[in-house]
Every structure is written in structure tokens, then in C-alpha cells.
Write a structure and sequence with these properties.
The protein has a single domain, classed as Cytochrome P450 (Cytochrome p450). α14 packs across α17. With 514 residues, it is an alpha+beta fold. The model has no long low-confidence stretch (mean pLDDT 86). InterPro entries: Cyt_P450 (IPR001128), Cyt_P450_CS (IPR017972), Cyt_P450_E_grp-I (IPR002401), Cyt_P450_sf (IPR036396), Cytochrome_P450_monoxygenase (IPR050121). Belongs to the cytochrome P450 family. Its cofactor is heme. This is Putative cytochrome P450.
Length: 514
């Protein structure tokens, strides 16, 4: 057979191969396109693209306002919304109890893995998915974060509030506008640094991002949020960041800082006499000291990794939660001058001399202050990520619809806090709503007030955040006058990088006269 014969024989074979390839490709595409319409949840509405891919969610995360996107989705589509092929957001009065109730078997989804490096999940309370190791770790740490432990941390908060007051007095004397959100975050970082490590980072002293710590945390949270649906990318992204920074990032500084603290503690412990140990036992203790004592008592079950991870989580999560919440409180107070004045009158009544820091006990006894805090955290919760869980084996009925096992369901606190069945006029800042006498209504609102999460995975550091907030707010309201800048370039803006942080909170400030 000649070459021409071979060619004519090969053409049909190749042509047949191409036909088979195109047929298979067509079947795969057809299945991919049709599959969503074969699902028992096919009637759940949402963005069209979300039926086929997580790209819609990823794009909205990238834009930085996903909390507003979720609110808009529920307004348009109702109680159940699809935001990915197997992801569903729920707005229903009974859903929180079903999904997050104690003893329920809904586990965290892989969305959280990106917030911890591989091998770190067992020590990272936020990222760990399995309830059993989470419960064990929480039990080990619970006493350190308890309400009774708060009293020992008050002097740390007082020290930082005094420094902040000094900085604000200096700023007010200059008469220049300032980004109040920046200073409130400096306060939050220095308090959590002092509580955690026994030393302030120095944000308040310098008024700037010390060693790039804030920038490093923001970058890490931003990366984690952006790749949350692809957690396998966490390691290469982290290694790339480390390489680009040349080992000089804020995280590298914190790591060296902690290592130095540990070594100093070990040296001091070895050289301490019985008398000095007795004296030290009566002094304030930082988290790091308490963690190291736990490690010495049980090094097998409370490792150095527990110490590093636990203290780092304090700084990363605690500073952003508190700083963002404080900004939200003051922003909404300045938008409601009548509320600001009412809170000032309450503060003056508690401390007429205007000389001292407010104790936590005093702050808890100020009903309008507590209402202001609750309302600000309702209308602007710091956390901006859907609280995603995996439907357990056997499936579950939520909001009147059956969800098969393996589907991912979530409640977004920004959506929950704007449910009109729970909160009337949900877009209005009204602290008075928390001062009503209708106990059943109050109970309903409290059940669905979830700025720190809910169920067994509630933020373990919430009491510390509330301590910092409750002590600082009345002091600043009592001692300073603030004026919100209304110029277009100074308007309040936010960006959701796991936490919904203010980007532009410009005010003028003056020391209160009289």
C-alpha cells in the first residue's frame, strides 16, 4: 500500500477519534449544565453563576463587601439563598438552633482551613473542623478567658486607656483631623499585646503600624478569605508572602517576640528563689505566663505549638474584633448626637469627678452604655464571613426544606441582624430597642444577636473584647468632643477582609471643657 493509501486509511481513524472526543466532551458539558437541575435543591434561587461554580462567591469576596451582597441576596430571593453549587445561606428563626445548637453534628466546612497552616489545625480553635479536638482545646483554655479572669486584666486595659487619652489630648491640641479608627485599633493592639504577652507593642506610643504587624495580619486574613474555597493554596501563598518579605514581615517579628518572651520566662523561672516565686504569684499574669505554666504542668497535652497558636490567635482576632467594634460604636454615636449626649450624662452620673477610669463593674451597671454597645455590634458586627457548616449524615430539614448530607449551610450575622421579624427598623441605630420591658421580645433579640458567633464555637475571647470596649467607650465620651467629617473624601467606608473594617473614619477631636 502506498503512502497515499495509508493517508486515506488514517483519515477516517483520526476523524473517528475526534468524533468520539467531541461526543464525550459534549456529554460531560451537558451533564455539568444539567446537574443543578437534577438536584433536590434545584428550586433554591440565587445568582445564576452560583449554580455551577464558586466563582460568584469568590468574586464577591474579592470585591470586599460580601456582607452587603448577602443582605441583598436575601432581600431578593427570600429565606434560603444559593451562593455556590453546594452552598446555601439561611435566614430563618429556627435555623440557628438546628445548625449551631449544642450537641448537633454540623461540623465546620473546609472554608475555615485556609485560616491555619497545615499541621496547625489541631491548635487553631477557629480553623479546627472536628468538634472533639475543638472541645478538648477549649477546655484547656477556658479558664484563661473566663469572666472571673477578666478582673485580673483590668489594670492592663487601664494602662492603655491612659496612654490613648494622652495621645488624643495631644491630637486635640493640634486641631487637625484624625483617623479615629486607626487610633482605636492601636489601642486594641496594645491592650491585647499587654494582656497576652505582658508588654505593649507600642502602637499607641508611636501612632503607627509597629514592625508592620497590622499590615501582616490584614494581608494574612485577606489571603485566607480569598482562598477559603481552595485551602490547598494556603501553604504556597504563605511561603510566597514570606519569601517576598525576606523574613521581615509583621508575623516574623511577632514570632521572634514570643520566642524571646518564652526564653526570658524560662530563665527567670530557673533563677527565681522561693521568696521571689511567692511574690510573683500575687502579681498580674499575662496569657503567655499562664500558657507556659500549663505547658510545664502537662507538656504532652499542652505543647509549645499550643502556646504559639493560642497567643497569635489572641493578637490576630482580638485586635481586629475590638478595634472594628469600637469604630462602629463611635461612628453610630456621632451619627446620633442625642445618643452621644445621653451616654455622656450617664457617664457623668456614674463618675461626677471625671477623674478616674471606669471599672468593668461600673460599666456593666450602665444600661444605656450596654444598649449602645449591643446595638452597634448588631448593626455592624465585626465578623464578615458566613458561619458555614456541613449537613451531617442523614440530612437535615431547615427552614422547611430538606438538605442532603454534605451540603454546606450557613447563617451570616449581617443578615441575621437585619431580620425584620426580630429587629424592627433593622437599618436604624436605635439603642433604645434594648431597653424595652417586653421580656419575650428581648429574649428573641438576644437569641439572634450573634456578633461573636453562636453555639459551641462562640468566640472564646468575647469577654476580653467586651472588657476593652465597655471600659473605654464611657471614658472617651465623657472626656472628649468629637465631630464627624462629612467631606466626600472623609466619609466612612469599610472593606470586608474577614473582619468588616473601617477604611476612612475621620473626625476632629477636642478635650471636653467645663
Amino acid at each position: 500500500m502506498g503512502s497515499s493509501g495509508l493517508f486515506t486509511t488514517a483519515v477516517p481513524i483520526l476523524s473517528g477519534s475526534h468524533t468520539l472526543f467531541y461526543a464525550i466532551a459534549g456529554l460531560v458539558c451537558a451533564f455539568y449544565l444539567v446537574r443543578p437541575f437534577l438536584s433536590p435543591l434545584r428550586s433554591v434561587s440565587g445568582p445564576f453563576l452560583a449554580r455551577y461554580t464558586d466563582a460568584w462567591f469568590l468574586w464577591r469576596v474579592y470585591r470586599g463587601h460580601v456582607e452587603q451582597d448577602f443582605i441583598a441576596l436575601h432581600k431578593k430571593h427570600g429565606a434560603i439563598v444559593r451562593y455556590g453549587p453546594d452552598r446555601y445561606s439561611i435566614e430563618d428563626l429556627e435555623a440557628p438552633k438546628i445548625i449551631y445548637g449544642h450537641g448537633n453534628s454540623f461540623v465546620k466546612s473546609s472554608l475555615y482551613r485556609s485560616y491555619a497552616l497545615p499541621g496547625e489545625q489541631d491548635w487553631n480553635m477557629f480553623a479546627v473542623e472536628n468538634p472533639k479536638p475543638h472541645s478538648q482545646l477549649r477546655r484547656q483554655l477556658q479558664s484563661t478567658y473566663s469572666l472571673t479572669a477578666l478582673i485580673s486584666y483590668e489594670p492592663y486595659v487601664d494602662e492603655c486607656s491612659r496612654v490613648l487619652k494622652q495621645r488624643l489630648e495631644e491630637v486635640s491640641a493640634a486641631g487637625l483631623p484624625i483617623d479615629l479608627g486607626h487610633w482605636l485599633q492601636c489601642y486594641a493592639f496594645d491592650v491585647i499585646g499587654l494582656i497576652t504577652y505582658g508588654s505593649r507593642f507600642g502602637f499607641l506610643d508611636r501612632g503607627e503600624d509597629v514592625h508592620g504587624i497590622i499590615s501582616a495580619i490584614e494581608t494574612s486574613l485577606n489571603d485566607s478569605f480569598h482562598i477559603s474555597m481552595y485551602p490547598s493554596l494556603r501553604v504556597p501563598v504563605a511561603l510566597l508572602r514570606r519569601w517576598l518579605s525576606g523574613g521581615k514581615s509583621g508575623f516574623a517579628y511577632v514570632s521572634r517576640f514570643v520566642q524571646q518572651k518564652i526564653e526570658r520566662y524560662r530563665v527567670d523561672t530557673k533563677t527565681a528563689t522561693r521568696e521571689t516565686k511567692k511574690e510573683e504569684s500575687g502579681k498580674m499574669q499575662s496569657f503567655l505566663e499562664k500558657f507556659l505554666q500549663k505547658h510545664e504542668a502537662d507538656p504532652t497535652n499542652f505543647t509549645l505549638m499550643h502556646i504559639f497558636s493560642g497567643s497569635a490567635a489572641n493578637v490576630a482576632a482580638g485586635s481586629d474584633t475590638t478595634g472594628t467594634s469600637l469604630s462602629a460604636i463611635f461612628y453610630h454615636l456621632l451619627k446620633r448626637p442625642d445618643c452621644f449626649q445621653k451616654l455622656r450624662e450617664e457617664a457623668d452620673a456614674v463618675q461626677p469627678s471625671r477623674q478616674n477610669e471606669f471599672t468593668f463593674h461600673e460599666a456593666l451597671g450602665m444600661p444605656f452604655l450596654q444598649a449602645v454597645i449591643k446595638e452597634a455590634l448588631r448593626i455592624h458586627p465585626a465578623f464578615g464571613v458566613p458561619l458555614e457548616r456541613v449537613v451531617p449524615e442523614g440530612g437535615a430539614t431547615i427552614a422547611g426544606r430538606f438538605f442532603p448530607a454534605g451540603k454546606k449551610v450557613s447563617i451570616h450575622c449581617w443578615v441575621e441582624h437585619r431580620n425584620e421579624l426580630i429587629f424592627e427598623d433593622p437599618d436604624e441605630f436605635r439603642p433604645e430597642r434594648w431597653l424595652i420591658e417586653d421580656e419575650s421580645k428581648l429574649a428573641l433579640m438576644n437569641r439572634h444577636w450573634i456578633p461573636f458567633g453562636l453555639g459551641s464555637r462562640t468566640c472564646i475571647g468575647r469577654h476580653i473584647s467586651m472588657l476593652e470596649i465597655a471600659k473605654l467607650v464611657p471614658r472617651l465620651v465623657r472626656d472628649f468632643d468629637f465631630k464627624l467629617q462629612e467631606r466626600p473624601e472623609a466619609l466612612w467606608k469599610t472593606k470586608n477582609m474577614t473582619f468588616v473594617k473601617p477604611q476612612n473614619f475621620v473626625v476632629t477631636i477636642s478635650a471636653r471643657g467645663g
